[in-house]
Task: structure prediction
Amino acid sequence: MPDIAHLSSLAGSPLLDSASDRLGKVEDVVARLDDGSASVIGLTARIAGREMFVPVDRVQQFGPYSVKTSTTKLDLAQFERRPGEVLLRADVLDRSLINVDSARLITAREVELVRGEDGTWRVAGIDPSLRPRLWRLLPRRFRGHDSDHRSFVPWSDVEPFVGHVPTSRLKLAGRRLVRLHPAQIADLVEAASHAEGEEILEAVGQDKELEADVFEELDDEHQVEFLRERSDEEAAAVLARMASDDAADLLLELDQERRLPVLNRMPRAQQAKVRSLLSHNPSTAGGMMNPDFVSAPGETNAAQALARVRSSTLGEQHVSIVCVVDSAGKLLGTISLAELVRAEQEAQLSDLVDASTPSVAPEAEVPEVARLMSDYNLIAMPVLDGDGCPVGIIAVDDVLELLVPEEWRRRAGAARD
Result:
């Protein structure tokens, strides 16, 4: 029996008994999805007009022109899919998969099976190139085994879409999707079909914080697309975990009749922040800022300020500066995270603060904000109210999002090979 077999050679081939008499035709190969692997457990075959299951331990020879059993008598049962099982021809071949290593969608043009030293068969990987598809156009007797896989992708690097198989849905916990950045997952969602995108988001939804991060990275069209089918409560739960400025932007993209019901279902603290942001023009500093930031009194020392940064759940850019305030809450200046790390840990912030760092009023428009951040090489900049108190900070990505043309942010099919 060969150590390598190809799905295209097995599916549709004759099923023979040990005496080489024809029993029927092989329909598919059944595999069980485990963590990072897929073990072959048997075949489905059309025998006397019925779809039957042939256990892999009853198979003596796998292809290339036929499949031969180890006996002349088979006690076969009608095939019924069990939890965790997939049909490689129906569920994988010519379907999209996620190449987690490259964070791109690929199509499985061929599925390669390999027999291990213990005699068990498993899925070795897939070939996404067009060569196997052309090979399959040849008459079966001329195919043999096309072993020249120039674009072979190991099974350990892919995640299949099996959302149409209720017992084998894409899982996130302990799986390879967690290796991807939220922006990469968002690219995959945008490049996938709606059903595939839903399956990715359902898997991501097992980690609610990651789900919110992915929604922040989706473009407006896809954000609305995937919230449209969710209830107001579910939509509010997603927005509640997003950064306040991103949540406010997304809320404005929803149909007008849904905005208030969704907003009212968000936690009160988040509601207040979003309502405040919605009172500003989206293209001004007040509309761009994030009302969540790290601040500390001037008498705080560097070690205490670093402790505040460590305990913060904000994103990296929003903890890149600490706003130093006086007893009245007015801004004394800012200090960067790098400066905090380098400073003597007992030094007071009032002695370390950079009072020359620029700030803007909520009414400042994008060109002014962009010019100041560019001139001073800032990652983040504070926004002050009329009393000189910080009410938010603007991160450089908030500015870039408005400056970069929409067609540059996402290209159709950018994450699909």
Summary: The first strand starts at residue 4 and ends at 6. The chain has a mean pLDDT of 87. The domain at 170-279 is CATH 1.25.60.10 (MgtE N-terminal fold).
